[in-house]
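Think of the structure tokens as a kind of shorthand, similar to the way a musician reads notation: each symbol stands for something richer, in this case the local conformation of the backbone. In the example below we present two proteins back to back. Begin with the first one, reading the sequence and then the tokens, and try to describe in your own words what changes along the chain.
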Amino acid sequence: MSEPTQRMIESNGIRLNIAEQGKGPLVLLCHGFPESWYSWRHQIDALAAAGFHAVAPDMRGYGKSDAPEAIDQYTMFHLVGDLVGLLDALDAKTAVIVGHDWGAGIAWQAARLRPDRFRAVVALSVPFRPRGPVRPTSVMPRTSDAQFYQLYFQEPGVAEIEFERDPRATVRNMLYGASGEAAAAIRAAAASSGASPDLGMVPRSGGMLRGPGAPDTLPAWLSEADIDFYAAEFKRSGFRGPLNYYRNVDRNWELMAAFTGLPVTVPALYVAGDRDMVVSFPGTDQLLANLKQFVPALRDIQMLPGCGHWTQQERPSEVSAAIIDFVRGLPN
């Protein structure tokens, strides 16, 4: 297969860079943090070979796409609006939407709010989470000496300074740090010491990128060339846009009040690694056990043994096959 081509698309008042390949029914691939269209490199090729038009945008604030400065330009309505505009620009009536991490949260909401445009959804790592009774940040873990990483991201400029000091080291350490290989090492160390790992906690006395970092030899699924690609993107774009997604979690909670109780009605598939930190968060096991209450057309939950957070990169062939099988099984 040929390499994906890239072009700029006007959508929702901004310009989005997209990578695309293949012809056929549209499959829209939405990445998470801290990634880019490149995180779907394996699936783009596989979907194109299977007879689909695979399109992976650099989401708002990432890569070559526009990055509005104002924090309030990164609400869920902006992000879903970008994707509706993208469908319009591609002259596509509908698409199957696939998302990972933040992209999964956006994909769930796109399918929930616009089932007329997004005919099915595949979510990786992040399950659909119904709106809670209180602001999300008010129940995030915090202690006198540490706070949940999403709380650390709230103050504009703080995480940017840390992450932009050396974008290559930042991406390298983050991608390894949430991998299945790192999760196994952390669990082994915790078992030998008897201490339980503090999932997602950032010490108040230091930044998020603490500890030994990634080893000299990366896991087989991640190359130094992959790190180089991501690093170049973040050197150009910075981290403010991506971090602004987190700075809207409470605003999104306010804005989505009118849709409380509205289920995701389109066919859905959920795929995650059994070593994904998201799956380990308190309450996620119960959420997955009851996911069909909120997603009644859920077809399957697939857990990938030994896989960490970077689902489609750590297990590219399994994820590509799962997406293709799911999409082929949809009604025409």
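Once you have a description of the first chain, move to the second and do the same.
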Amino acid sequence: MSDLKKNQRGNGNTSKVKTTPENVAEANEALFHATMNLPTAATHCGMTQREMKHIFREYLKYHDKNFEVTEDANSLPRREESCPE
């Protein structure tokens, strides 16, 4: 595959984006923290969406989650009912 791909925004912009490790790392971090969606991340890297999806799945395999799951979900505060019975 070529390192240079057409920009996929579809707005007539045919500039080429070079896929670099820095671009891919930025896109993976943005996807992980939900600050970028998949089509935008793929365009940022100069990849197809399918390629970006595969790269991000590999990223998820080797990076730990960044949130804590509580064991007892019943202890979480719940919203009280506003309707009287």
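Compare your description with these statements about the second chain. Residues 3 and 34 are 26 Å apart (CA to CA).
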